[in-house]
Design a protein that fits this description.
The chain is of the alpha+beta class. It has two domains: 13-75, Winged helix-like DNA-binding domain superfamily/Winged helix DNA-binding domain (Arc Repressor Mutant, subunit A); 79-253, GAF domain (Beta-Lactamase, 2-Layer Sandwich). It has nine helices and eight strands. The strands form two sheets. It has a six-stranded antiparallel sheet with strand order 5-4-3-8-7-6, with helices on both faces. Helix 1 (13-29) packs across helix 3 (48-60), helix 4 crosses helix 9 and helix 5 packs across helix 7 (179-192). It is elongated. The two termini are 37 Å apart.
Amino acid sequence: MMRDALTEPQTTGGVQAIARAALVLRALERAPEGTGLADLAATVELPKSTVHRLLAALAAEGLVELGPEGTARLGSGLVRLGAATRRGLRFRLAPVMLRLRRELDETVDLAILEGDAVTFVEQFPAPHRLRAVSGVGTSFPAHCTANGKALLAALADEEVELLLPSRVERFTERTITSRSELLAELAEIRERGVAFDIEEHTEGICAIGAAVADPAGPAGAISVPIPTQRFADRRDEYAGLVGAAAAEGTRTLGGEAR
């Protein structure tokens, strides 16, 4: 049965329109290739006339793009909103990251998942002359990095399969290129709460990462890259502190703790 109201608390007027627009945007998020009006209306369980009006309003603001054949997809205006969210994430998690850097005396990174890669959005370098540093804005493959695997583990296996490229690239002899092996490791990461990169992306560098969540789900990952020669003796200590920092970051963002 077609619904004319959301299955959320009853809203009226402009508030109801905003709630419906959000429902449409979430549906389009699950259809990155675009979808037609009829299919979209069926997905959100709203009349086609209502969805048509919502799409027109969202398109006028650049939040939705309408194709020549009546298809709709998320618009480029959301990229600017996402960038603002990214800046807010950096500021809110900075105290947690700085505390972790003082505790470990190592570089601390913050990264977000973008497709099949992670992009560094904040970093507090270690004071050592021998240290691991990746510039803010740099992107690394998710399948062979600690922060990337932590974020992939926060997703369902079906989502991971869709994100991974058709061919998983090898960077070192330790890189996992088998999809089944990678999925098995992600299951282990879900159990222990932290991910490891043991020279899988760069020889001579190890890392530990853990995902940070906000109310919508995984928002980013805190990670600590460490030269291999300093890693082995303190692995368990590093893992405990990184996991605790990620849990604190999740509480800071109002997310659900693991």
